[in-house]
Structure formats: C-alpha cells, structure tokens
Design brief:
The chain is of the alpha/beta class. Helix content is about 35%, strand content about 15%. The relative contact order is 0.21.
Amino acid sequence: MTPTSTPISTAWSAVGGDPALLPRLSTVVREGALHARLPVRELARACVGACALAAAELAARRAGLFEVPGVRLDDGAIATAFVSERHLLVDGRAPVNFAPLSRFWRTSDGWVRTHANYPHHRARLLTALGVTREDPDAVGAALAERSAREVEEAVYAAGGLAVALRTPEEWVAHEQAAAVARRPLVEHERSDTARARALPSLDGSPLLPAAGVRVLDLTRVIAGPVATRTLALLGADVLRVDAPQQPELPDQHADTGFGKRSATLDLTTDRRTFEELLAEADVVVTGYRPGSLDRFGLSARALTERRPGLVVAEVSAWGAYGPWGERRGFDSLVQVVTGIAATEGGMTDGSAGQPGALPAQALDHGTGYLLAAAVLRALTEQLEQGYGRCVRLSLARTAKWLTTGIQPSGEGTLTSQASESAEVYDGPDAWLTERDSALGRLRYARSPVSFAGGPVDWARPPGVWGADPARWA
C-alpha cells in the first residue's frame, strides 16, 4: 500500500475500479467491531466496500443513471456478516462450525492445526496418524510424538489437512510465500475475443445489478459460496452444482445458500447436462483445489473455449502456483501457516505460548466479497468492451495484504470522505433477521452489501441441498 492509499482504495483498484467513484462511499465506524491485533475491521470494510461500489456501478450502467448510487458501509453490519455462520440458527439450533478433530494440537516441537469437518478429510487424517477411531485423546497422543512439520507432510500426503504453526518470519522465508507475494491481490486475464451476451437494461425497484446473469456455482465451504451468495442477493440466477457423493455440510449450506438453487450432477456420467448449463452461463465460479477440476474440462481456458465471452472466477487457498499450488486448504489453516495465529496469540516463536485466531474467518469472507466485486467489475467492463474474462484470488494473498499491507485504525483507513459517524459496536442484533424456509425457521445475518436503491435481503431462503433440477430458472 502506497503512503496515500487506503484499504478501500487498494481493494477498489485491485478489482479495476475507477478511483473517481470512491467519494460515493460513506462509513459508519463502530469501535470494537472485529477487534484483533491485526487490522481485520479495515480489511473487512475494504472488501465489502469494493463489492458494494462495484454493485452500485453496474446498477447505474444498466439502469442508465447519471450518477452511481451512494454506498453506505456500516462496521456493525460487516462485523455481523463476517461471522454469519456463527449467528445462524435453524429452528433455534446453533450451527456446528468445527468438528472435534478440527483444532490446534500440541506436537513434540510446537503446534499443528487440523481440519477434519468433512468425513473424507477426517478419515485421511486418522489414516495418516495410524489412529483407528475418532478419539481426540488418541489423536492427541499420536500428534504429541511427532514434529509439527512431519505431521504436516504426512497428513497432506494422505490427502488430509494439517499445517504446522509458523511465525510471520518463518512464512516469509517459505517458497510458497514468495510465490504468493509476486502476485497481485486480484489477478485479471482477458480470456478470449468473443463478445459476451448483452444484458438488458434495468428498470423497477430495487435495483438488481446482476439481474438476468446466470452464475454456475462450483464452490464449497465459505469464500466461494459467500461470493455467489452475494451475486444472488444482487439478482443473479445462481445455480450451485455439487457432486452427489460429496454433500455439503448442512449448516454450511444453510448459511451460504441464500438466494441460490442447489442441484447435484455427476460429471463422470452426465456431461451433457453440464454442457447445456455452461452453454447458457454468463459466469462460472470455482472454489476447488487448483487443477482438481481440470480432468472434467473445467479449467478457465477449457471453459472459455467452449463458452466464449464467459466470466470465470477462481478462488483457492494457496494460489494456483508455487510448491503448494495444488494443496488443499481452509481459512483456519492459512491463518496458522502465514503467521496470523502466532501474531493473534502474542507468540514470539512457533513453540512458546498459545496460538490465537482472528475474530472471524476473515480470509474466507473478505476474499469472498472481493471475488464478487471482481465478477461485478468484469460484467461492467463487458458492457463497454465485451470479451470473456478470468479473475483469480487466494486466501494466502489476502492474508499477505492483511499482515503487511493495511494500516491499523486511526490513520488513512477511510476514503477521502469522512466517516458518517463513530459509534461503539454493541452486538449483532440490529443486523440479524428471521424467515421460514424448507430447512426450518432461520435466524441469519443480513448482507452488508448495500447501496441506495439496492436490495436489502435475498429473494429466497436456502432450500434443501441438491433438491433443485440442474437447469436454469
């Protein structure tokens, strides 16, 4: 970040936005929101701000407005949405966010963090450790006998997920960190010379900048689904497609399924249906491990060859490059590897003290809103220039921005406009609401993406996972 830049101007520039639009933003600052050692609130505000401004810009272009609608950011709404999975209630039941084996563990020389929410990852973790039952005591005993780096490599070799705790200095010295540092926050590529499908003009209220846009959602967990959930809020027809043998975790689906339809499709046996969907898609968003979908012809290059004019948006944990380019990863693991957990725990090295965590899975949520912003800006650019586009983001690159590129509150954190007001964050209640759904009575966080004349809630609640037909509405 240059001396004159701010987090929001950095995020807006990263998605290709015109800096002349930044004064359209105003901010309600709430002290205490997303409190952390690192500037999490500033990152969250910037990512949501870039997304909301991109939405307002696209709405203005499609509606023929002379001025881009104003965007009002509220730290309370943003803080609430960044932990939306924790605020979700289904018929009064609180969600399960981490399984018993997804946690920090002591090793012989430090700490590791494992991720075992999905059954297949849990099974691979146990296999790598030589543990025959799902028993935290047995897992802890097996880990205590090994070094953290040994565990990391053994579990990854078995197809599971475990990472050794690193300090910021240790991560900077890693080859993957160097590869991440060489990349921009958002990678852009113009993918072909065919013009995209023309989108109709907007009329009516609310303004839905993504109305009529067909989004094929091939994502899982949080970052990608947050992006597509946001596009659904803004009017897109979002169809999430999963393999029938890999169901999403029920609470995760309930939290990120707002506004979408959900279908299952086995690409090994029903490629025809997928190709029919692709032929009419405007946007494809992928969130799987880099390279894992290539065998199905789902790389960005292969997709745009078959569907010229397509916008492809890709998100991954470590980036699609470097020695870890094909590794699996999740927000909690990226925090541990990049030195965030050591910083938040106040640790001076990787073995002393207790590792900490950010107050939210901010890498996931922040990257998700930034991914949605990049898609919206790509659609705006298509209105002027046509052509397909590909945008790529990674949690590790967002982590680098958080740890080295954002100033803490107090200096240069807002746009050129002064904050609208300064208040104290006194909890999430003002940004929670309820509605009935096929899953039960839901309490959930409203979206923080807001602009004058835009939508205030999703048009539909999440439905039953995989219950919708694999076709466009």
